[in-house]
UniProtKB/TrEMBL annotation:
Protein name, per record: protein acetyllysine N-acetyltransferase
UniProt cross-references to Gene3D superfamilies, sorted A to Z: SIR2/SIRT2 'Small Domain, TPP-binding domain
Organism: Saccharopolyspora erythraea (strain ATCC 11635 / DSM 40517 / JCM 4748 / NBRC 13426 / NCIMB 8594 / NRRL 2338)
Residues noted as binding Zn(2+) in the record, renumbered to the chain: 121, 124, 146, 149
Gene Ontology MF term list: histone deacetylase activity, NAD-dependent; metal ion binding; NAD+ binding
The enzyme's E.C. designation: 2.3.1.286
Record has Metal-binding as a keyword: yes
Length: 248
């Protein structure tokens, strides 16, 4: 099935980055599994309404493991799949940019939940770099305001309660409908609309392949479910696709 797939759409989640030292949210060592209170920091209403939540969010951002993380074999497998011409689009819920750093061309990556390396003003929309904002935090400005209008600054990530970019959602839906195999990897398939893309693809006739250590709500819809570690499973799948693409 995998070797025969001509056009793959992939959806990834936090599980592809755990081997790079970035914990997921809902796995056994997940940030929310260990501390359910932490979810409040990802809620847009708390962020906008409570300066203490913002101070905590900037501190957490500064300590985020993604600053020193390196892409792993799972990220590289997607770059290889693209290299063998099989991968159309990769939708990711991750905000760590490790797919791009592993060599997957930026135009193939659709960041459903944004990136943690940028900032945006919630009032005037002006954008900046996270590095620059964190330098202000390190200099003592615990909740740095927008330099243009004094508004509240936030990372360019999508918090709970915030809408996804409608153009990104449209492209995601198009990619889910325009594939013969939909590969969901390292995601609990519990956050929408991301999880809905897997269902949409399967119902439109694509083979759904789920690679995840724990069960997901869509396992019954899947043509195959692989539970092994992603740094092993994904390179194996990429190798099957590449062998097949070299056949005459
Ligand atoms: P999740 O935490 O809900 O699910 C991750 C899944 O990956 C779990 O079911 C876990 O069993 C599985 N998993 C973890 N490590 C694995 C491994 N090595 N091999 C196989 N399976 C493994 O994550 P989600 O579905 O992406 O949803 C969480 C939300 O959190 C998303 O919205 C995302 O934006 C955000 N998030 C991003 C990052 C990141 O950028 N790296 C990290 C944490 C959370
Ligand atoms: Zn502003």
């Amino acid at each position: 099935m995998f070797g025969a797939a001509r056009r793959i759409t992939a959806l990834t989640g936090a599980g592809v980055s755990t081997a790079s030292g970035i914990p997921d949210f809902r796995g056994p060592n997940g940030v929310w599994t260990r501390n359910p209170q932490a979810q409040r920091l990802s809620d847009i209403e708390s962020y906008l309404g409570d300066p203490e939540v913002r101070r905590q969010a900037w501190q957490n951002r500064a300590r985020h493991p993604a600053w020193s993380a390196e892409p792993n074999a799972a990220h590289r497998a997607f770059a290889d799949l693209a290299g063998s011409g099989r991968l159309g689009v990769l939708l990711t819920q991750n905000i760590d940019e490790l797919h791009q750093r592993a060599g997957l061309p930026g135009e193939k990556v659709l960041e459903l939940h944004g990136s943690m390396f940028g900032t945006v003003c919630m009032d005037c929309g002006s954008t900046g770099s996270m590095k620059a904002a964190l330098e202000r935090v390190a200099e003592g400005d615990e909740d740095p305001p927008c330099r243009a209008c004094g508004g509240i600054l936030k990372s360019t990530t999508v918090s709970f309660g915030q809408a996804l970019d409608p153009e990104v959602v449209r492209e995601g839906r198009r990619a889910a409908l325009d594939c013969d195999l939909f590969l969901a990897a390292g995601t609990s398939l519990t956050v929408y609309p991301a999880a809905g893309f897997a269902e949409l693809a399967a119902k439109a006739g694509a083979d759904l392949v789920i690679c995840n250590a724990e069960p997901t709500p869509y396992d019954d819809l899947a043509a195959a479910v692989l539970r092994g570690p992603l740094i092993e499973v994904l390179p194996e799948l990429a190798a099957v696709a590449s062998d097949d693409s070299q056949r005459p």
